[in-house]
Amino acid sequence: MEIQENFVNKVAQSGLVTLDPASFYPAGERMVYDIKDNLYMGLILREKDFREFVKEHDWAQYTGKNVAITCTEDAIVPAWAYMLIANKLSPFVKEVVFGDAAVLETVLFEKALASLDVEQYRDQRIVIKGCGDTEVPVSAYVELTRKLTPVAKSIMFGEPCSTVPIYKRKEP
Fold it and tell me: Per the CB 3.0–4.6 Å rule, which of 2, 14, 116, 155 could disulfide with 166?
């Protein structure tokens, strides 16, 4: 007696469109430049010494990288110090931001998502994938939701087999 089973992929038939935020992951090495290494006695920034450092430092070593500029010490660092570093980095880096690594990721994802053509998702039932190997900042999920809400029929979070409803357009 032969038993034949036919499996039906209900997820494939559901009409759901899966959008993986990790697919927008911006390429490039990330690094944080910490001004604390330029502080005198870990407390203050001395302008003459700092300007000499900025002039002599090999900024080309950051070529092609994404850099966040910060100071992790509890010190008063004037805005012009960050500006000087940004000015020197700009010809070499892909991106330079003020903040820590999390801020850098937020900015990189925001820029990547800015080019998303949301019209391709008009009237679609969208599942924004919620897990994977690539760390996606919460800000990217918020930005995707903001951009897709005006065009999507519905937005869900998770996997097609297990979703959390986020938005459903009210039909007139």
Answer: 155
List the domain boundaries for the chain.
Answer: 10-26+108-168, 30-93
H/E element, 127: strand 125-129
Say which DSSP state 25 is in.
Answer: P
Half-sphere exposure of 58 (CA within 13 A, CB side): 2
**Can you read off the two tokens belonging to residue 12?**
């494939």
Q: Are 45 and 81 spatial neighbours (Cβ–Cβ below 8 Å)? A: yes
**C-beta separation of 131 from 164 below 8 A:** no
Which two structure tokens, joined as six digits, stand for 59? 């900024």
- What pLDDT, on a 0 to 100 scale, did the predictor assign at position 130? 87
The DSSP result for 136-154, as a single string, is --HHHHHHHHHHHTTT-SE
